[in-house]
Specification:
Radius of gyration: 18 Å
CATH class: Alpha Beta
CATH topology: TIM Barrel
EC number: 3.5.4.2
Largest sheet: 8 strands, parallel
CATH superfamily: Metal-dependent hydrolases
Catalytic activity: adenine + H2O + H(+) = hypoxanthine + NH4(+)
Strand order of the largest sheet: 1-2-3-4-5-6-7-8
Enzyme class: hydrolase
Distance between the termini: 20 Å
Site (Important for catalytic activity): 218
Number of helices: 17
Number of domains: 1
Structural class: alpha/beta
InterPro entries: A_deaminase_dom, ADE, Ado/ade_deaminase, Metal_Hydrolase
Strand content: 5-15%
Helix content: 40-55%
Bound molecules: hypoxanthine, zinc ion
């Protein structure tokens, strides 16, 4: 089965570029930029990837990204991910970035965007991976801060295709960000939203009805609301599920409890993604393998998951056909 999974062409639609920072690169950059990490060794850093919930992960994720400073650093971080994705037969990626975690450190929006974009172009040229970029607002910060971030990014509008919402979910519902998402839509941007990762099904409904989200990131808590499951199935709203993330952040006690198989059986348009791979113990193939083994997914189900990743991408029909 591992060979079958490895050979499947896949798209990855839920991947935070900041969350691809491997400890080895973190130490290299810490040394180069003279920024200190709260760990003495790579092994110590990896050992700290033992989380109780989303917040305990986010605390470490924001602390670690402080070593990524220059345009070249953002380029190197992004290219390292693309090489890994290429090795797993990922043919298309739609990558999140969190500009507020950089502008707060006085790194200009332009530096972040230029570093990531030049790597995406190189990946397309040299590896044949197509990529798009999605700007995420940090939901634990204010709606005003999200608004200001969008204004800072709009001069570089051609470098990203959409906006999303991530960070600490509970207590920061989609309804907090209606105005900035309306402005994003007015600028022709696609809309996605993390919802129903730790938060209740109502946050998924808010993301759809108030933000006009075209895709829901995670969305696993929809399973507590049969009427919502029915709606998501009828409307074929894509759900970008991240199984290893959900288990490592204790959304489920172990993979055998993960609802992804039931979600497929309910007719939901589910995809498999890695979220923040080094932190959660695997890239996209390891996520496929983990759910296949724990839930005994068939080849047909694996093919469906991979197909869903292309049909849920922000690609034209012609672009999808070329990749499928
Ligand atoms: N959830 C919310 N915010 C995040 C995540 C996540 O899984 N990963 C990186 N930022
Ligand atoms: Zn995420």
């Amino acid at each position: 089965m591992d060979d079958f999974i490895a050979a499947l062409p896949k798209a990855e639609l839920h991947l935070h570029i900041e969350g691809t920072l491997e400890p080895e690169l973190a130490f290299q950059l810490a040394d180069k930029n003279q920024v200190s990490l709260p760990f003495a060794t790579v092994a110590e850093m990896r050992a700290a990837y033992d989380f109780q919930d989303l917040q305990s992960f986010l605390d470490l994720y924001y602390a670690s990204i402080s070593v990524v400073c220059t345009e070249e650093d953002f380029h190197d971080l992004t290219l390292a991910y693309l090489k890994k994705a290429d090795s797993q037969n990922v043919r298309h990626t739609e990558i999140f970035f969190d500009p507020q975690s950089h502008t707060a450190r006085d790194i200009p929006m332009e530096t972040v965007l230029n570093g990531i974009t030049s790597a995406l172009k190189q990946g397309e040229r040299e590896l044949g991976i197509s990529s798009r970029l999605i700007l995420c607002f940090l939901r634990h910060l204010s709606a005003d801060s999200a608004w200001e971030t969008l204004q800072q990014a709009l001069p570089f509008r051609e470098q990203f295709i959409g906006v999303g919402l991530d960070s600490s979910e509970v207590g920061h519902p989609p309804s907090k960000f209606v105005k900035v998402f309306e402005e994003a839509r007015r600028n022709g941007l696609h809309i996605v939203c993390h919802a129903g990762e730790e938060g209740p099904p109502e946050y998924i409904t808010e993301a759809l009805d108030l933000l006009h989200a075209e895709r829901i990131d995670h969305g696993v808590h929809c399973m507590e609301d049969p009427a919502l499951v029915e709606r998501l199935a009828v409307e074929q709203i894509p759900l970008t599920v991240c199984p290893l993330s959900n288990v490592r952040l204790c959304v489920y006690p172990d993979m055998s409890q993960h609802p992804i198989k039931r979600m497929l059986e309910a007719g939901l348009r589910v995809t498999v993604n890695s979220d923040d791979p080094p932190y959660f113990g695997g890239y996209v193939n390891e996520n496929f393998t983990a759910v296949q083994q724990a839930l005994d997914l068939s080849r047909q189900e694996l093919i469906q998951l991979a197909r869903n990743s292309f049909t849920s991408a922000f690609l034209t029909d012609a672009e999808q056909q070329k990749l499928l």
